[in-house]
Design a protein that fits this description.
single chain, Nucleotidyltransferase, domain 5, five-stranded mixed β-sheet, 45% helix
Length: 334
């Protein structure tokens, strides 16, 4: 009897659904916008989940009753009390197959690691870090950002760079080409106008301003380079915490680097590796190159006791082939 597995990646900017059979052949796909309840509420989560799931089922020619199991990686599923709230919504949509819900960082780990377990370190607009051992036990950070002392996202890098600009202006730190670059970026007259405008709300720096820091680092600005190395060390520190929680210190495992910030400079990944290797010398850093939603399909397969590791390449290739044909070439999560 055929088995069908639904994987869903409900992201902070985009969401995807994929249906596969037990051989790793992808049969259906759906795409939508953000479903993070922190941004769009649970009504928005419901709407996006319903849309992407219906698209995938229609393409596969299936009804939801045919699903063997479901795996979901959900942005905003951060705390134990979040899960029952999400399950209520999912039940109302008629999805009753056995399912596993995890934070969206976990599905990137499952598909990105060569073994299906290890640690994922996310560096996008914000940061996150999740780990999973061979038995499925998870380790984590809080995932709530800078007020908890967790840094590693693009916004953190911009703030760090602006600290240096301010220190240079008041003679507390060295001069840096970040100063004129940020002035130009926002259209300010000079550094004083930049700082006044930011403090009064006339100017705004978004996470996209990380490109200013990357550009300055490529021009060999020592302050910008130091900021990138700081960011990498902070991300590595998140991973070290999870290493200790899961007792990975003496193990060989993959650290999956996920997110657009890593694309900005190799210095970030280099610093992550240096920090992690001080505690876990046998860890291997790998970049996520597969669609995270495939990790959700693999998560669904685990419930049917299917060893998905031999199917990993087939799932990735089949997903990308279908998505390319549909004009939706799926990329690693940003």
């Amino acid at each position: 009897m055929k088995q069908y597995f639904l994987g869903v990646d409900v992201g902070g900017t985009k969401s995807h659904a994929v249906i596969s059979d037990e051989t790793g052949q992808v049969l259906g796909f759906g795409a939508g916008g953000t479903g993070n309840h922190e941004a769009v509420g649970f009504e928005g989560f419901s709407s996006v989940l319903d849309s992407v799931t219906r698209q995938a089922l229609a393409m596969a020619g299936l009804e939801h009753q045919a699903l063997t199991a479901i795996g979901m990686g959900i942005a905003g599923l951060d705390w134990p009390n979040d899960e029952p709230l999400h399950r209520e919504v999912i039940e109302r949509l008629g999805l009753h197959a056995p399912m596993t819900l995890v934070n969206d960082a976990v599905i990137g780990l499952i598909v990105g690691s060569r073994t299906g377990w290890g640690i994922s370190v996310v560096a996008g607009t914000g940061s996150n870090c999740r780990g999973r051992d061979q038995n499925g036990r998870e380790g984590r950070v809080s995932g709530v950002g800078h007020w908890s002392g967790e840094y590693g996202g693009g916004g953190d890098l911009v703030r760090r760079a602006m600290h240096s600009v301010t220190k240079a202006w008041v003679s507390r730190g060295p001069e840096t080409i970040l100063s004129p670059k940020f002035v130009e970026h926002v259209g300010a007259h000079d550094v004083m106008d930049l700082l006044e405008g930011l403090s009064r709300g006339r100017y705004h720096l978004h996470s996209s301003a990380v490109m200013v820091v990357f550009e300055a680092a490529r021009e060999q600005d020592p302050v910008a380079i130091d900021a990138l190395r700081w960011l990498g060390c902070e991300l590595g520190s998140l991973a070290v915490g999870v290493v200790r929680q899961l007792h990975f210190e003496e193990l060989s495992f993959d650290v999956v680097l996920t997110g657009s910030v890593y694309k900005g400079s190799p210095l970030i990944a280099e610093s992550v590796g240096q920090t992690v290797h001080e505690v876990a010398p046998h860890a291997t850093l790998v970049q996520l190159t597969a669609p995270p939603v495939v990790g959700a399909v693999m998560l669904a397969m685990e419930q049917a006791k299917i060893n998905h590791i031999p199917l990993r390449d087939q799932l990735i290739q089949s997903s990308n082939r279908m998505l390319s044909n549909e004009g939706h070439m799926l990329k690693p999560s940003e």
